[in-house]
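USER: Fancy drafting a protein?

ASSISTANT:
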Amino acid sequence: MYQNDGFRELDRAECLRLLAGTPVGRIVHTQRALPSVLPVNFCLDADSFVLLRTSASSELALRVDGAVVAFEADEIDAQWRSGWSVVVTGHARLVTDPAECTRLERTGPESWVAAPQQVFVRIEPELVTGRELVGGRTMYGRNLSA
């Protein structure tokens, strides 16, 4: 569906396909009643759950277990004034099942920072939304991306 503001809404399947090809995003959670944003590497687990790996003693692991969070990833081309953005909103949970942790050790994302004890955080996608910039910016009726 196209909107008249130059953006196209993406359906859930398109959003998940774009997320699957992107290694870095941002998790938004609450810290002292204010939004906090952290860049993280991630992967999709079971084709739709956002999966992060972090230090067991990190602020992220301590704050997000059981909380509603937002996760955003995007790809922007400033030169061509194009791109997309996807937001996943849902409950984050630490993965505690030993068998599941063993599986995720093999299939989950690798942490970019070494830590003695690491945990997996899984975000269940309750709401998945996305937008794609279409057509680039125009000036005086002329498409600048042409």
Notes: The chain has one domain: 7-143. The first strand starts at residue 7 and ends at 10.
